[in-house]
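[recover] target loaded
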């Protein structure tokens, strides 16, 4: 997952922030270990992160899902399958 700090800067200066001026939004980008410590020690109220970065002991809510694409050369045998590529075809 790419860093989201730049995207969040847009949110912090958006109409949403104008309507919610009483909400303090501070953006941090952290490594997995630092994120786990910050959440455990309650130095963060909310974190936006992929599930594999979150410690098991924190509550989580899925906010969105993203399509996953397979990229391979057009000449690859898997790209030549009639009917398209399937999960079964990747095994």
């Amino acid at each position: 997952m790419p860093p989201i700090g730049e995207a969040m800067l847009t949110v912090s200066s958006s109409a949403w922030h104008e309507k919610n001026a009483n909400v303090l939004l501070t953006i941090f980008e952290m490594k997995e270990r630092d994120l786990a410590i910050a959440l455990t020690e309650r130095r963060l109220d909310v974190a936006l992160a992929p599930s594999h970065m979150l410690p098991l002991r924190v509550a989580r809510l899925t906010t969105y899902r993203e399509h996953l694409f397979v990229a391979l050369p057009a000449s690859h045998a898997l790209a030549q399958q009639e009917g398209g590529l399937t999960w079964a075809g990747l095994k």
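[recover] notes: Helices lie at 5-12, 15-19, 32-40, 87-90.
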